[in-house]
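#help-structures
NK: newbie question, is this the right format to request a structure? protein is Proline iminopeptidase
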Amino acid sequence: MDETIVTDDGVRLWAVRSGEGRPVVFCHGGPGLWDTLEDVAGLLSGVAAVHRWDQRGCGRSQRLGPYSTARTVADLDAVRRHFGLETMVLLGHSWGAQLALRYALDHPDRVRGLIYVSGTGIDPADTWREEYRLRLRGAVSGDVERWAELESRERTAAEDREFAVLQWSADFADRDRAMEHAERMATPWLGVNFECNAALNAEGKRDWGTPALREACAALAVPALIVDGAEDIRPRRAVDSLERALPDASRVSLPGAGHLPWVEDPEGFRAAVSAFVARVG
């Protein structure tokens, strides 16, 4: 059953709980998107009570700022309190992996374990972004010229979805099914919050890659599991510095999988994540 969480500044967040077992809270990607992790919840239904939510301004949550990492961390803590969790395992995907890491750094006593899925590490984005852009252009399915045109100008709501599907098609290793998977991600289409996306990405450019962040990660006494799809177009070397910095981290790379590794290797993903949850939860 869908639930409504009211944050300390009065913003309403959508959330849902499913499954039984150890408490795991998901942080979806973006920023500015919505929860697309229902399939992951299904994979973990036998081992975890999964708590999913749409971040502030996104999807089914109230479209109202302010948008900042600190504000989103506070919203995540509101989710924890709403469900009565003293501690939890955090699973974050892509941008959500960065959010889950930041929450663990700020509140390590409330996190039993961190599952960092398809994130981009703690180095500055300019160390990997150009290579990612080249790979993205080469991996877009269908009409790459159409994708480039849509990227370069303002779009209608329908064109936003078209652009997203073309871009998301690059996130899958199986090129024959890439558009099918991307269409499924975009259904239902809940609209991208570009204001949120711009604000949080700008903040990330300022804050990630600093010595203070590396030192904080080195002091984090929370077990971590890093899960990658080996064929993710975001260079996986971007995550190496995070793996080196964390004192208690293991890493699983799933062959033949892209940015959403549970889609292309569900059994490998389920096995890795379930074992970690059982160990730390």
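mod (FA): yep, format's fine, and the tokens are attached above. The beta strands are 2-6, 12-18, 22-27, 48-53, 88-93, 111-117, 224-229, 249-254.
NK: thank you!
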